[in-house]
Specification:
Blueprint lengths: L4 E4 L2 E4 L13 E3 L15 H8 L9 H5 L13 H37 L23 H27 L7 H8 L1 H14 L1
Antiparallel strand pairs: 1-2, 2-3
Helix pairs in contact: 4-6
């Protein structure tokens, strides 16, 4: 808002104004060349001026292309190269996962068909699904090593529990803990059998 000035033969004056509470300010005499504080431009150093004069667009971007975003090329969604690459990777991973799920579904169905065609053992216990012509000892090495690792872990847990019981850290063992301790011999026998086979 520009300051209202009154000029007469005695000099230049800032006109009297009314305050918000209704009272009046007296008119003030000012010297020639006086600029009111509200009208003095704010000081800006050279760096601020430089950054204000710079365009807001990234370097190298055509201002016409930025002004008309609806006219972008087909397939160009405004993503950077890295973002597009990551998007492609994500889609590829998703496709591989879907393919893996389909493969596992087919494998499960094949196993179910082979398990249904085999006669059940006479002891009544369920046997692992093994394709005809192979024995349970022909399981892949990765499954055997996984089973060995699992058995060793269980035995280690049983030994730690036994040590805690002997030390008196567990005064009243739970039913699950007692069952775990009772399975120690069967775990050791199974571990020995697997180690012999490999």
């Amino acid at each position: 808002m520009a300051t209202p000035y009154v000029t007469d033969e005695t000099g230049k004056y800032i006109a009297s104004t009314q305050r918000p509470d209704g009272t009046w300010r007296k008119q003030r005499r000012v010297k020639a060349g006086y600029v009111p504080q509200e009208e003095v431009p704010v000081y800006e150093n050279k760096y601020v001026k430089f950054f204000r004069s710079k365009p807001e667009l990234p370097p190298g971007l055509n201002p016409e292309a930025a002004a008309a975003p609806g006219k972008a090329e087909p397939g160009d969604t405004g993503l950077s190269k890295a973002a597009k690459r990551n998007l492609k990777r994500k889609e590829k991973r998703k496709q591989q996962q879907e393919k893996g799920e389909r493969d596992t579904d087919e494998l499960i169905q094949a196993l179910e068909r082979s398990a249904l065609s085999e006669p059940l053992p006479s002891c009544g216990a369920a046997s692992p699904a093994v394709s005809p012509g192979t024995s349970p000892g022909d399981a892949p090495a990765s499954e055997r090593s996984r089973r060995l690792k699992n058995l060793r872990k269980k035995l280690r847990q049983v030994e730690e529990l036994q040590q805690r019981l002997d030390a008196g850290e567990v005064p009243n063992p739970t039913r699950e803990q007692l069952e775990k301790l009772s399975r120690r011999k069967t775990l050791e026998e199974e571990l020995r059998g697997l180690e012999r086979d490999s």
